[in-house]
Design a protein that fits this description.
Blueprint lengths: L3 E4 L2 E3 L5 E7 L7 E8 L6 E7 L4 E3 L7 E5 L5 E6 L8 E9 L5 E4 L3 E5 L2
Amino acid sequence: QAQLVESGGGLVQPGESLRLSCTWSGPSQHFYTMGWYRQVPGNQRELVADIFSDGTGNYGDSAKGRFTISRENGKSTVHLQMNNLTPEDTAVYFCNRVTTIPVRREFWGQGTQVTVSS
């Protein structure tokens, strides 16, 4: 069964960096969006960053200037490089993939914990 497999979460100190990775195990498609959302208890899931199949990146306000989303050759894996992390970045990060052709389908990863604490 096609799924998203995440890796790279963990515990870091403020100011440090972390890289999250997400790999799609299903068939390749021409048009899709893959990205990362995050959620803290009691809050809605929010967009961190996503990348369209043409390579165009899109960032949530919290990520602009600090985080970079990229994808590997073959386009089945995306990375989220997170720099200058703060305690406010502490959350569960979820990988997401959306395709719209022929019908809209959305997939979520299981989530990976990122904790920023001294």
